[in-house]
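Revision sheet: structure tokens.
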Amino acid sequence: MRHMVAAIRSATAMLLFGVLAACATPQTMPAEIPPRHTLDEFVETERQDDPLDIYDPMERFNRGVYRFNYYADNYVFLSVVHFYEFITPVFVQDRFTNFFNNVSELNTLANCILQLKPKCTAKTFSRIVINSTLGLGGMFDPATQWKIDKQREDFGQTLGYYGAGAGPYIVLPFVGPSNLRDTIGLAGDVGGFTLADPFNFEHHRDWQLAFDSMYLVDMRHKIKFRYFESGSPFEYELIRMLYTKARESEIKN
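Predicted:
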């Protein structure tokens, strides 16, 4: 892909250079006057910001996991999600979504604090308090109606905030696109929530199983992405690029 892009750039540059040369006349470009532009301005053989130049040393393995995720998603997860959507009224679905969104903001709050972001911390804390009380345990979202925007921070972003590089691109089983830094961050977020144990799951394992199951169903319910429906023969590269650029943007903000 990188060589193809470079070849297209070179061909385009050569065509443009030929047109410029053909249009030039002795009156407008005498031989003694040096050209105003050089070929290097049009031909860029090395670009450090090439969006397709993403470190993926385990690409063969990652592609295998990507295909595995397609089958697991298509024949297991989506079947469960479709059944859930069929038997559950939309109003109830929205209540579950709001509840789990509210719970997930506990992780956001922790990472806002770790990044020393007072505005993010204040907004997230306000949202949790408002939605947990006036929102009836998070089932409703009055905070958003009051223009208190939801913040998006996780431990992967926290690591990036303090200078940790992304590392190699990784496709995680069931989870999807990631990288080494975000994989460690995901483990940190899950571990932090488990240690905090806000619902006292340590003494109620049945509740934890129900919570985790519904959380996964709701999470997949919210994601509209479907494997191999992009229509692109380069879907793997496209997803890899979009994920990487999105995470870079989130860390910068």
